[in-house]
Amino acid sequence: MSVFLYRWGKFAFRRKWIVLPVWALILVLLGGAAASLSKPFQDSFEMPGLPSEKATAILEEHMPQMASMFSIDAINGTYVVAAQNGELADEPNMTALNVLVQRLNELDIVDHAEKAVNPVTATSMMPASQEAAKEQAEAAAELAPGAAPPTPEPNCLDGQNSPEFKGLCGGAPLNVLNEERPGTVAVIDVKFTMPTFSDVTEENRQAAEAIAQEGRNAGLTVELTGAIAQTQPESGQAEMIGIGVALIVMIIAFGAIVAAFVPIVTGIVGVACAGALLLTGTSLTEVPTFTPILASMIGLALSIDYALFIVSRYKHELVVQDSPEEAAGVAVGTAGSAVVFAGLTVVIALLGLSVVGISFLTAMGIGGAIAALFAVLAATTLMPALLGALGRFLFKPKLPLVAKHDPEDDNSVTNGMRFGRLIARVPVLTLVASALVLGALAAPATQLNLGLPGGDSMPEDSSVRKAYELQTEGFGEGKNGALVVAVDLSETPQDQRDAALTALRDKLASYDGVDYLSVAQPSQNGQAALFQVVPDSGPNSAETQDLVEHARDAEAALKAQYGMEYGITGQTAIYADVNSVLLTSIIPYLAIVAAAAFVLLLLVFRSILVPLTAALGFLLSMAATFGVTVLIFQEGAFGIVKDTHPIISFLPIVLIGLVFGLAMDYQVFLVTRMREEYVHGKDPKEAMVSGYHHGARVVTAAAIIMISVFGGFMLSPDITSKSMGFALAAGVFFDAFLVRMVLIPSLLALLGKWAWWIPAWLDRILPDIDVEGTKLREVQQRAKPASVESEPAGV
């Protein structure tokens, strides 16, 4: 591979005015295809095999209208309304409520299959006892079509407080059971006509919010939550921060200004090509909204990192080679080989996200992998052409203070060389110190609690957050994550169905943590029924998830006795299911990416222990990252985060995928140079110090760039984005600076020549990819007598 890349590097450098227009043409063609074929991004949540799907299937078969209401992809909204003075049943609150409901029923984006009803009126129609409920049902059966049903007495506005009353009226849209301020908070659930989240436009959101504002103008407190109130994720801020920091870092790394812009150019081109390809892909399949954001983040950071690595090697080769063209060939042949294999580890880690079985995670992984591939292509093919085009202007103007200590000058004593020598002198001390620090930081990870973002994770000034708090104040926290129990009675004898439903309701009522349990709501064909359960605690609490688990465990005994089956769905149940699937996916995901990366690193380093220590070091950095993230975002340490929440369920799997790829990048960047020095005759410790001298600044610069890109997400007001950005930045920090630059060099110094040991039989069967460039040097030696003297590098 090194020989092929060496020849390509020389060709691209020499034929720059062919390579550059070809890249421009590729960019134009991909951009044109994207412009003409792209369709809107689609967000759908598909996770086959979730236990909550059983309830959905029962509802779709027997109660289709209810199924659409409880679908995870349904575009719904909940208006949480509160009286600023008195109760909602008082004038003028009642008048304002009537106007609000009327305006909702006039809104063209609302599904009018079932009209919205004033919550006070709806509560007054609810019976307050089993007898009243039975009488109401009998009276309704005798009504003429279109006639208004009689108001039952007593009803839920009467304020009774018996257990039976709570069972019937706990599901009222008005908080009649609130002991401190009954009748002051209500909810109006609305289903909108947009089929998917991606179809919701900003005009739709503004129209829905305008209704809420009309209610506020009329003297009510009105907040809106649900899918209609969720906004599309914003992009650009983190990327701009990353580009700005990257430019400063590369000016320092190269000691010159012009060279710092070259990786920025390859990064922008690579991201633009990947983005255009993803846009084109929307014409063939569904692409989630967040995919291009993740791809641009990965593509930009990797493109800059890879170009930085190759340009740094080019700067060194300018000193030792006969011509800039030869220097470009050797730089692409050696550093470019490392870039190819580093990129492959990222691609494997991202494609491995498909093992989780979540459609949008798979799509994001594929999008990120495409961006990583373009990062490799831009660094190895576009980069040498840019080097040739800039020529002698590349490392001008020099910055004297920065360029004074050049890591590519073997005679220069840099901080990297000093630290490498320190590690070589006391490897046991540096190894133990780094391991202890990582271990101490990892300790809080044992308290990791996963959850999905809800209204309580939104910014404090958002309507979604205010609606969550208002609903909690009026009805209790469990109202924000009610459970839906869908019962299939088709295999239950008809004369036993009432007894079966009573037995199930009694069982559900017996569990701790149940705030409200409705009476059974039968389907029209009598073969199914529906219960609604409101827990005491919120959707992400361990108590609520335990309640779901206990209720599901009771199904086997009830099925054996009555022949009925049931499923549990709703936000809380889905959260519990997703958490469980993601937790059980972490180990197989780690095994797949680690095994694949081990094979790649085995090919790169031709060693058993180096790939093994690379993987074990990654586990340490991940444990430390989880620990610090739990400490700050879940436990609230240091007061950095005001509101603590469970760690988002998707964070561990995404964190592992992204940071694993980057960790192997830094491993390849730093340790390939050490192996190269060892292969070319230096003793193990000397090779470690020399490789550290050449690679420390590059790895440091690459890590700072990645930390800046990820850290930019901490500026978001959304706690989910904050925690994701923090965890990614912390993961890169721990892995780059503690594992790759302290722990791994310490192990190499201690292991000596055994670090590079490989069984002879394995060495014979492994293909020789020659990352260290031994074969290309042989090619150089054979070509030298026939070569024509070229211009000196002048650097």
TrEMBL record:
Domain of life: Bacteria
Sequence ranges assigned to domain SSD in this UniProt record: 252-389
Keyword Chloroplast among UniProt keywords: no
Transmembrane portions of the chain: 268-284, 290-309, 330-363, 369-395, 422-443, 586-605, 612-633, 645-666, 695-715, 727-751
GO annotations of cellular component type: plasma membrane
Location of this chain's protein in the cell: Cell membrane
SUPFAM superfamilies given in the database record: Multidrug efflux transporter AcrB transmembrane domain
Pfam families associated with the record: MMPL (PF03176)
Membrane topology recorded in Swiss-Prot or TrEMBL: Multi-pass membrane protein
Descriptive protein name: Membrane protein
